[in-house]
Amino acid sequence: MSALAQMYQAAILEHARRTSHRGVLDPADARQEGVNPSCGDELLVTLRLDGERVAAARYEGKGCAISQASASMMASTIEGRTRAEATELIAGVRAMLHGQGVADGLGELAILEGVRRLPARVKCAALAWTTLEAALAAAAAADTPATRDGDPGPGSAG
Amino acid sequence: MTDHDVARLRRDFPILERRVHDKPLVYLDSAASAQMPRPVFEAVDGYRRRHHANVHRGAHTLSAEATDMYEAARERVARFLRADDARGIVFTRNATEALNLVAHAYGRHRLRDGDEVLVSVAEHHANLVPWHLLAAERGVVVRGVPLRADGRVDEDAAVAAIGPRTRIVATFHVSNVLGIVQPLRRLADAAHAVGALLVIDGAQAAPHVPVDVTALGADAYAFSGHKVGGPTGIGALWMRPSILETLPPFLGGGEMIRRVEVDRSTYADIPMRFEAGTPAIAEAIGLAAALDYLDGVGLDRVWHHDRSLGRRAVEGLRALPGVTLYGPEGDDRGGIVPFNVDGVHPHDVASFLDAEGIAVRAGHHCAQPLMRALGVDATVRASFWLYTTEDEVDALIGAVGRAVDFFAPWRAEARR
Fold this sequence. Notes:
CATH class of the largest domain in chain B: Alpha Beta
Shape of chain A: globular
CATH topology of chain A: Sufe protein. Chain: A
Oligomer: heterodimer
CATH topology of the largest domain in chain B: Aspartate Aminotransferase, domain 2
Structural class of chain B: alpha/beta
Structural class of chain A: alpha+beta
Strand content of chain B: 15-25%
CATH class of chain A: Alpha Beta
Number of helices of chain B: 15
Strand order of the largest sheet of chain B: 4-10-9-8-7-5-6
């Protein structure tokens, strides 16, 4: 099977089409836009937080199958996780996309590993996760305005 | 050109022998960067091996040789654009820098609050953002002119929009998305009637059609080396010398001065005034070799070849169910064909094609206002040049057909 066929295997297409976590939470505790300027993909991630836990997550936007699949998996995976667990997942996905292997606990997210063989598309898969990271950082900053420094911000999508 | 002619030309481009994902490379992204023929490598290599030194300074032999070669390259660019005075040629990094030079050197010093820059909605960002920067700094107003159904600038609307405050009319010569040639004479006359300049982004025209800046009525014309078979990092601006010589420098530094005191300086004559610092000497020499090559093939033949391939691609892609084409009907365009597979993001289509060894561009093509005018976020774009074969166009059509099938489950959902 080609790298491409692996990449687009049924699970990915299934995820890209899945609509269960599509939408916008309103009100939301965190609302974050993400964009890949080079390709014009746009994403809006909204989160509802319950203390340290992500109670609900939704995504909305336009983009390729890879970015939409990644966003769908991100939203469904992140629900019920603590912020610390989310941070760990974000790091795990990032490492996986950069060819550093699949960490334990990524579960179905391992499907995205195939993207590393399509270097031009890594940023598509990463968009949902960098946007989530920025959303959590913004929510944390809003919780404790006095410590608002050193925010990682959206950063680069690569 | 016959198949035999194209086959002969292809031997000059070693990269076309490459395989990608174990398939023969089908390079259909020449509008982004064209591939380089051997004579360009040889010119650059020959300069580096035998003549390299800094230009315009130094009394030694190598510096004199490098200077002669660099200035000969300038003369070569002038001939390519049918410009009678090479003092109007300024080497830049690319067309983008050339357009920024006009916006800075002319725009910042000649335009005032309320003056207008007229652009088409189909401009590449390189012919929009420099004017936006000028607008933010000088209170200049940037106005857009719509396109007609055939993808060309609506000349009636443009002429009607040109008024006493219009100072610059900026347009493409060949659209980087639609591949059509924009007639410029009427726009030139209307601009000149109110004392405005016609500034032309020629990045996509220079590789495909013969350019004559005088006949076009241009006041400034920009193009990039890497789209005409030359190296990256070199491009050129032609600006009417009678205007250029009245402008202040764009960048300051070595080579662009006449006399420097600690607290002030006077500036060199054109074109040196606009080439601060050591220029891209080898790249300029490579560009001249690329222009020799291109003129050797003949731009009339290249245009005919591109148009014939464009027609073949349009016919083949149109016959595929689930494929939407953009741009004019018929054979009214050169070798640039934008399309989408319905319900599938162009990046996904491009990745599919890449797996088949076919290189295309996917995205907004640095023309977001045009994407909005076309009602899409992005497109796939196949582009052809003098080395592209009919077989390669057919390979594209076949692969796009397979992409339609491959993404069928996804497309069925997208239609709902």
